[in-house]
């Protein structure tokens, strides 16, 4: 059983996916996908407040030989803004191939491409949250 309400985030330059695990449960559920725009931190703060979030799990790609890619830099900037605007504990979790896994799972269940595009980011966040729940509790 989980003792915190946890919000997982799959960061993207266009869209950001979210998943939640409530303390009464031990599983993650897709929550929402938001456009990544100027109001995104206001919306994230509202989610944190409305859902009584205690912890944020942010997907972060593994580095190879300490190489910092442009994606790493973008996520680091997002992480800094997230810390400045939200003010709760944030844990980084490997997001490697979460989007590929999300799309693959949806295709296995014969979900249409249009639906996959709409839910890919929040389903990727669910995979990131599952990784946290399985490995870091």
UniProtKB/TrEMBL annotation:
Subcellular localization(s) per the UniProt record: Cytoplasm
UniProt signal peptide: none
Keywords: Cytoplasm, Hydrolase, Nuclease, Ribosome biogenesis
Major location category of this protein: cytoplasm
Any one cellular-component term (Gene Ontology): cytosol
Ranges where the YqgF/RNase H-like domain occurs: 4-102
SMART domains for this protein: YqgFc
Recorded family membership: Belongs to the YqgF HJR family.
Protein role: Could be a nuclease involved in processing of the 5'-end of pre-16S rRNA.
Name of the protein described by the UniProt record: Putative pre-16S rRNA nuclease
Upper lineage: Bacteria, Bacillati, Mycoplasmatota, Mycoplasmoidales, Mycoplasmoidaceae
């Amino acid at each position: 059983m989980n003792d915190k309400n946890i919000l997982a985030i799959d960061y993207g330059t266009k869209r950001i996916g979210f998943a939640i695990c409530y303390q009464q449960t031990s599983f993650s559920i897709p929550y929402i996908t938001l456009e990544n725009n100027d109001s995104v931190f206001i919306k994230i703060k509202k989610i944190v407040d409305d859902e009584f979030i205690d912890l944020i799990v942010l997907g972060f790609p593994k580095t190879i030989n300490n190489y910092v890619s442009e994606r790493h830099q973008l996520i680091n900037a997002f992480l800094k803004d997230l810390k400045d605007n939200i003010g709760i504990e944030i844990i980084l979790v490997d997001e490697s191939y979460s989007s590929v896994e999300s799309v693959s799972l949806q295709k296995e269940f014969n979900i249409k491409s249009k639906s996959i595009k709409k839910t890919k980011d929040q389903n990727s966040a669910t995979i990131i949250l599952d990784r946290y729940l399985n490995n870091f509790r």
